[in-house]
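Worked example

This section walks through a single chain of length 191. The input is the sequence exactly as stored; nothing has been trimmed or padded.
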Amino acid sequence: MTDLLDVALGLQSFCEERGWEFCFIGGLAVQALAEARLTKDADMTLLTGWGREESYIDALLERYQGRRPDAREFALANRVLLLQAGNGTGIDIALGALPFEQSAVQRSGYEVFAAGGASLRICTPEDLIVMKAFASREQDWRDVRMTIVRQGPETLDWDYIRGHLRPLAAAKEAPEIVDQLEALRRRYTDR
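Given that input, the structure is written out below as C-alpha cells.
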C-alpha cells in the first residue's frame, strides 16, 4: 500500500500544481470509504472537458509512461489514459466531462489515510456508489454493499444517487442496474 499511496500522492501533487480539478475513485476510494482491500492501481477522474483533452494527456505522458504504445490515441478515443509510475504501479485516469463527473469532482474532499496522515482527494460515498453500480461487475457490487454498510444507509443521499445513476444506466441501456441498487438499498434500510 505504501508504494501505491506514494504514487497517488505524487499524482495528486502533479495535478494540484497545475490547478487541475480531480478526485481519486476506484480502489483507493473504496479503501477510504468502505473497506480495506487490495488494490494495485490509482484510479482518478480528471476534469478535462470536451476538446481540451490533448493538453492534459500530453502533460501526463511527459511525467508518466503510457501502459500501451498508443496511450495517447487510446485516451483520445476512449477517454481513459492508461499510465504507469516509475515503480510499475498502474494509473488509470478517466478524462471527465459529463455532468456527473463534474459533480463528483466538485463534491470530493480530502480523506486521511492511516499511513503517516497522508490525505488524498477522494470522491464522496454517493459518487462511489454511482460509479461502482454503473460498472456493475461482481466486485463493484461488493464495493457498493460495503460502502452502504460502512457509511450507514440512512446517511446516504439516495435522491442524488438515483438522479445520477438513472441517466447513466439508460445511456448504457441497462436500467436493471437501478433496480439492483434499489433492492440493495431496501435490504439495508428495511430491517
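What to look for: The mean pLDDT is 93.
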